[in-house]
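Hello Y.,

Per our agreement to keep a running log of every chain we model this quarter, I'm adding this entry. I've kept the format consistent with earlier entries: sequence first, then predicted structure.
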Amino acid sequence: MSKANQYLNGPVDPGPKAQRSKTSIAPRMPVVFGFLFFVCMFVVGGASAEINTTAIMDAISAFVSIMPGITNMITQVVPAIMTLAIVGFVLKFFNQIIAMVASVLKF
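Predicted structure for the entry above:
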């Protein structure tokens, strides 16, 4: 019954979360905009600089060159794994059938 009457005595205390909502972001806005302006100055200034992509292109070329080897390995290993999984399933299935028949025939 206390649940039904909890709103009769006045508003429920919302707890500590209500205190967080009272803090405003307005006092921090000049700091935020100043930081964004500062970052934008560096981005615009660095945009005209030339970026050396030789090392990045070398890394990408090396990674792409090993991809055929990885795909060959996967295509050769997956059929063997699938065969082992099917054989394991069939053996387990027949083992369960034999165990069931043995338990039925046990007197």
